[in-house]
Structure formats: C-alpha cells, structure tokens
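Blackboard transcription, Thursday session:
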Amino acid sequence: MTDIIRTRLLGKGYGAADTVSGVNMRVKRGEIYGFLGPNGAGKSTVMKMLLGLVKPTGGEIELFGERLHDGSIEHLKRIGHMIETPVFYEKLTAEQNLELHAEYMGYYNKRSIREALDLVQLLGVEGKPVKQFSLGMKQRLGIARAISTRPELLLLDEPINGLDPEGIQVMRNLFRRLRDEWGVALLISSHLLSEIEQVADTIGVIQGGRLIREVSMDAVRESTAAYVEIVTTDSVHAAFVLSERLGIANFKQVGERTIRIYDSKLTQEQLSKALIVNEVPIHSINRRHHTLEDYFFDMIKGGEGHAASHQAGA
Amino acid sequence: MLHLIKLELKKGRFSAYVWGALLAYALIAAFMMAIYFTEGTASEEPAFRNYAEMLRGITTIVCATFVVYAAVLLAKLVVNEFRDKTISLLFAYPVSRKKIILAKLSMVFCWTFANVVLANAVVGGLLIAINARLGHLSDPLTARILYEHGIFVLMQAFGAAGTCLLPLVLGLRKKSVATTVASSILIVIIVCSNNGGFSLSNVVAVPVSLGLLGILGTYMSFRNIDRVDVG
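(Written on the board underneath:)
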C-alpha cells in the first residue's frame, strides 16, 4: 500500500452549486503533493473533507488504505494539518497550545513538542501567549502543531502565506526533511506555483472544483525545455532561413514577429550570426524558458474548456 | 470522559470561576441578611414569615444567579469555540464529537447543580444560625421542614442545571455570547421574579420541566453533530 490518500469522484455540493466535483486524487507515501489552484477553486474544501470537517456529498475517500465513513476518527491520529489561518487558544502560550493538541491527539511527548518548535524556529517564545504572535509566527506555530505528533500525512493549506522570504526557505527545507527523514506524505496547497514548484514531487491542478490534472514535476520539467526566442520584422524570411538554410525543424511562430526555436544544437551566437548573414532583420534574440507558469496557465485555460492556444514544440 | 473534562479545564482559567462562585455566595448571603435585618418582625408585610418561606427565597435567588452564571460558562466553553473556529480544531481530533460536547455540557451541568445545592446549604445554614440568636422567625425549625426543603432544593438544582442549557440552544444559532447570556437573564426574570410572594420557580414543576426542555433542546441541537460541516 503506497497510496496515503485516494479519492474517487469526490464531490461537495452546497445547495445547487457544486464547489468540488469528481475529484480523483492520489497522494503516495513519502511524496510532496503540490495542490495548485486559484483562490476559491476548492482546495480548502477538499482538505477539510479529508479531515472529516466537511462531509462529502459524493464519491469516497480512502486514507491509509481504509475507506472513510461518517464518524470514523481513528485515522485522524495519523494526520497533521493546518487549514486556512491556523486557530489557537489565544490566551494560552504556544507551548500550552501544543500540549493540549498532543493530549487530544493521544500523542503526548514533551520532546517532540520542543523539537517541532525548534524546527519552525519558535524556541524561545514558546512561553508567550499566542495572542501576542504575529501572523507569520502563528503560521509557523500552526506547522509546529501539525508536525508535533509525528503524523504520517500532513495537510497544509497555504502554509507559506504570511511568511518572510527567509521563513519560506526554512519551511521548504523543513518540508523536504519531513519527506526524506520521516517519510511523511505532504499535501500542500497554494495558489502560486512558484511557492510549491521547488518542493513538490507531484502537482495536482484544481480549477473550479475539478482536479484538472495530476502530473509529476519531472514530467513538467521535461516539457518546459528552454528555447531561443527571436523577434524579427520579417518572420516569413526568418522561418525560411531557419528550416532551409540551417536545417532546424523544431521551431514555432508565436505571434506576428516572434519565433521560438527549441532543442537547437546551435548556440545563441551562432544562430544570430547565421541569421544576419542570411539578411534576416533581427530586433532581438533571447534564450528563454517556457516557464512553469506558462505550462500551468495553459493547463488551466484548457481546463476552462478552451483549446490550448499554443502547444510547446512543433 | 474525565480526561476530556481535564483538558477543558486546562483551556480556561477556571480558578477565576471558583472565586466568582464564592463571591456570588457572599453576595447572596449579604442580600438575604439585608432582607432579614431590615424587614425583620417590624415590617407589616415581611418578606418571609417562616423558615420555609425564607429558605425558598434563598433557593430562588441562588437558582437565578447560577443559571446566568452557567450561561456565561457555556458561552465560554461552547459558543466561543464555534465563534473562534477552534471547534474546527477540536472536531479534527480522533475523539468523538459527541463526547467533546458532552464533556463540556456535563461540566456545566454538574457545576450548576453542585453550586445550587451548596449555596442553599451555606446561605440557608447561615440565616438559620442568625435566626437562632435573633429569633425574628418564631416558628419551630423541624426536621420535616429541612427534609422537605432538601428535596425542593435538589429538584430546583436539577431544574437550574437543565434550564441553563436553554440559552445555549439560542446562543448557538447566532454563535453569540451576548445572545446566550441575555437569554439566560430573560429566562431568569420570567421564572424567578417575585410577584407578591409568588414566583414561577417555586412551583417545582416549572423549573424541572424547563430543565428537561433544556436537556431535550440541547440533545436536538447536537444530535447530528457528526454529520455537520465545520469551518
């Protein structure tokens, strides 16, 4: 059994409109699953359904290989979570909040609490009441609480919200460490790809309550290869030169004046020289990445029902 | 269950509530003594003419006080968890939701019951002791009076402990502390107000049926808690 989370046609409808529908999701043991989608796409709702806070109106959920039903609670011992803005008992100190959490979870271990506080760099302020904490500190405390009971599955909803750049770095390293050293499966949601592309092993894109696609990051990286972009006033001539004189087949015209060349053996210098020799007027020439944003933007547009307007590669 | 109650106690500083209760005892005692001394035998229409009336007067005030007091506790223990969304934390624990709620409610129920009984004993005992010296009330204090009053107090305590759940049912709808406390005050005013020596609460059936209603209403509002969406 390698699947930690498995959902089949999971759906939630509030009244007439479905906020989530037909979600088939698979999160494997020991992987970081980036759950990507714009605000309001249904990320939090899916996570709440996994926690049993929101009851699905359709489909089923399997966690740790067992199907959930009304009132099943045993699996919750194995899950750490932080959904939306973390809530605390504000008058209690950070440490008391974590102790209380541990008691309810049935996992009381003073050392793991201190360890968790240390991992999110909150040691030293554990004696302060939470109401004195900034948003970023609460965010980190929320993560500490989630990991303090040594879960096998972590559900983190926008965990990087409100953190400073240094804090973001700390969190990324922490997520990788949890995956590599503890073998935790992490489901991390975000509305920004840049927040999760560096840590995720798999990305699931959700849009309008539907899981549009589930892809491994390796596959994504392959299809986002680098290219050289030429801007020219005479793209017809340029295309002719590229294919007939230089023998390049893998290029594509984007817009009226722009041509993208993929997988070229030629360097940028050789290319520009060859084009100039062949009297192609060049406005600019640049090496570019077809960015991940482009990739997912295409995907989301596809998910909305439009045909992808431009496909990478020719 | 006891463990859950212990955890609830950890969440709030309940020592403050114990002090609050003691203060309430003192105030009730002072109030009753004031009535006893000012109205004494000199008054033409004394507030109470015999032991039974005096003891019942104490019970009415005690019940009124601790019903409102319980509403405050319930607001803190239950309504606040919903309002502050900490309930989404609680309900994601590997503990049955019903047990969590039941722990909270039984705490308040027992607390109210115990306080009503204790306050009656303390304030009643005090006034009996004072009367033993001053003798404003001249009827004999028989074991029968005490026994009957004891039963009366137990019924009233049960009634109060159940009645205090009614404001919770109302307050939960709006997730409002103010609604909870205000409705408890309203209930107390209706039930415990004294109209020319008569108050609804003295008819044992009234507080007891209110208590049962409170328990029933609470049961109804939490019956489906396992299937409710939170947060």
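Lecturer's comment: The radius of gyration of chain B is 19 Å.
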